Fold this sequence. Notes:
Elements: E1 3-5, E2 10-12, H1 13-17, E3 23-32, E4 50-57, E5 63-67, E6 79-81, E7 95-100, E8 110-117, E9 126-135, E10 140-146, E11 155-164, E12 167-177, H2 186-190
Parallel strand pairs: 1-10
Antiparallel strand pairs: 2-12, 3-7, 3-9, 4-5, 4-8, 6-7, 8-11, 9-10, 11-12
Amino acid sequence: MAINLEKGQKISLEKEAGKALNKVVMGLGWDVAKKKGFLGFGGGSGSIDLDASCVMFGEGKACLDTVWFRQLKSKDGSVVHTGDNLTGEGEGDDERIIVDLAHVPAAVTALVFTVNSFTGQNFKQVENAFCRIVDSSTNAEIAKYNLSGGTDATAMVMAKVYRHNGEWKMHAIGEQASGKTFKDLMPVIERFL
């Protein structure tokens, strides 16, 4: 059964999954908040381009690689982004980042997942936003974190998946920020390494 994470919560992914994990998927989903027109009618909705990114860190806060809409695969091939969703339309995950934990290089100590609005819309314009970690072999949801918050933030440092004593753990960060890409979020990310 999936655990609903709260900001700051840390879990062992393997304990939550009940087994050793080889491959996980970080899914990001969102809907455009419905606008209300005159007397609540005819407001329309539009589209919002949120982007999921994964920043791979080594010892000493060294950024080793990144996976995002401009680089869909890590240099070593262990992390793959399935593509950029420009609207948030559809059901379930709108963007997915697949992580082959068994093949993440030993030099990588943490994977930090971020979400940002490349076009500058804030989270007041988004509803039903979430990130989740799924066991790729069973498609079972391990953990889920609700991102909807109705704030002026345009980005969020969502979660960190990291190695600790030989196992993978997850820290639900949920730190709101401003920025168009993960690069703008680096000062915030580094506080959690």
